[in-house]
Amino acid sequence: MSQVRVRFAPSPTGFFHIGSARTALFNGLYARHTGGKFILRIEDTDKERNSDAFLKVIFDSMRWLGMDWDEGPEVGGDYGPYFQSQRTGLYKAKLQELAAKGRAYEKDGAWWLRLEGARTAAYDEHLKKDYEKVDAAPMVLHDLVRGQVARVEDRDFVIFRSNGEPVFHFVNVVDDIEMRITHVIRGEDHLSNTSKHLELFKAFGVEPPKYAHIPLILKTDGPGKMSKRDKGALIEEYQQRRYLPSAVRNYLCLLGWTPADGKEVLPIEEIIRQFEISAVHQSNARFDERKMSHVNAQTLRNLPAAEFAALARPILLESKVIDASVSDARLAEILGIVQEKVVSLEHLPEFMGFFFTADFKPDEGAKANLTKKGGDPVARVRELLPVLEAAAWNEPALEAAFAAVGAAHERKPTDYFAPVRFAVSGQGGGAHLLGVLRVLGRDTTLARLKSFAA
RNA sequence: GCCUCCUUCGUCUAGCCCGGUCCAGGACACCUCGUUUUCACUGAGGUAACUGGGGUUCGAAUCCCCAAGGGGGCGCCA
User: What digits encode the pLDDT tens for the residues A31-50?
Assistant: First the structure.
């Protein structure tokens, strides 16, 4: 079989929707899996609804997600131009081709595709109007995901508007032919359009590509598919919230497809290796922000330390937690104990800000919890202070100090943990406490404890 | 109204094609417990599902039919 050629064909009419991202992703995965080509084509035939700003959103989002295209805008290719607005001549020529065959005709200023079959008058309950029903043969689709799906297209449809512009169904098919597309992977919302497309391929006398209609992403709760107004529906939201693009991509793969080996958090190379269209699910999936967040956290913790640091530094700079004077070595030391606990880059500044300033904002909830377990927190810190002052500043010694003070006052060593954490960080949770004290350093730790106990 | 797709824990799903190994496995979330480390960590447990009804069969989550529910489409939008 010849080389696989798939395309993602968005219309720059809005934001980059999570469903679009996944469609693009599945196309890209299939291209990479098979060693084929991934083509980006911009469907901007409707001038009323297009904008250059939206175009940039598509490019930025796709690149952010690591979905680079082999042919298309900004990269070129042998089958361009890749903007449908620049292919008008081609569409007109193809329309003439159908007209010459007697398969297209003009009516009310628009051009229509003429279906083959006997005609009768009928009434459409939905549109509340009469129409000419065509007794056409069913179009049988052998969908790679859904199997055989037959549907009858029973009336002629518009392929060129009266304003001279071609409609979606027409350009979509013409370009798939001209661009030598071998597989069309798209959302299930296009399933019932496919009979129109198959009629067009038939009219052109061209063998249609293989189709794969993938399930849709539904709202977390409530009826219907994700709409752009739903929380979490737009890729830019994840960029703003510091999600790792690889984690977003990973989660999106899990919506509609399952890795054969059952591992859910896995690198893109492994996803590409395992990805099969035949394994794509048939049923729609509900979007789950919490699971996505979990995938993000897992991915974050699995990052090599250097990579984590490279991501963390600009975020900490931007939030003014650190300035440029903080050395890589110092940052690495802190990040070393933070990475295993933090769940998102978004929360990194508040999670580790106390390492750089004593002027942190105490967590009121944590403060309220202090007295619950260990009694009076100030008393605990006072008991502990002299022992810590005498201790060597490494984790085993610090652990021994907590144990000693606990034994001396007939308390559990852990009764001292929460007060100490709160005193040095203002928080109720966070990185491993002994590590925090070690990295914070003897002087800073003791100073904050004294200040707390004063 | 018509066309079409889908239907396993709250959610994402494995199993279904090739019926018995499934009183249905995993993950997220939730709950409980654990550690001389509190915790946004980690470990161990737990609650929780084959939409319903017929049929085929010795035997059905798995095959067939019907119903119900959900999704999508029905535009000179894409």
Answer: 999 999 999 999 987 665 56
HEC states along A333-380? HHHHHHCCCCCCHHHHHHHHHHHCCCCCCCCHHHHHHHHHHHCCHHHH
pTM recorded for the entire structure: 0.93
Residue A97 CA to residue A100 CA, distance in Å, equals 5
Whether A412 maps to a domain, the answer reads yes
Instruction: Judge whether A246 lies within some domain.
Output: no
Same domain? A97 vs A199:
yes
Per residue in A414-425, pLDDT (tens digit) is 888 888 999 999
Say how far A13 CA is from B4 C1', in Å: 27
Q: Is the residue at A387 inside a domain? A: yes
Lowest mean pLDDT, pick from A42-51, A235-244, A280-289, A358-367 = A42-51
Same domain assignment for residues A390 and A310: no
Residue A333 shares a structural domain with residue A369: no
Q: ipTM surpassing 0.90, yes or no?
A: yes
- Length A399 CA → B48 C1' (Å): 41
The count of domains in chain A is 3
Which nucleotide is closest, CA of A342 to its C1'? B40
* Whole-number distance in Å between A214 CA and B72 C1': 12
Tell me the CB-side half-sphere exposure of residue A159, using CA atoms within 13 A.
30
What is the distance in angstroms measured between the alpha-carbon CA of A408 and the sugar C1' of B34?
A: 25
How far apart are the C-alpha atoms of A247 and A253, rounded to whole Å?
10
Give the structural domain span for A403.
364-453
pLDDT at A377 over 60: yes
**Chain B footprint positions (protein CB, under 7 Å):** 1-8, 10-14, 25-29, 36-42, 70-78
Tell me the mean pLDDT in the region A329-334: 92
Task: Identify whether A322 is part of a domain.
Answer: yes
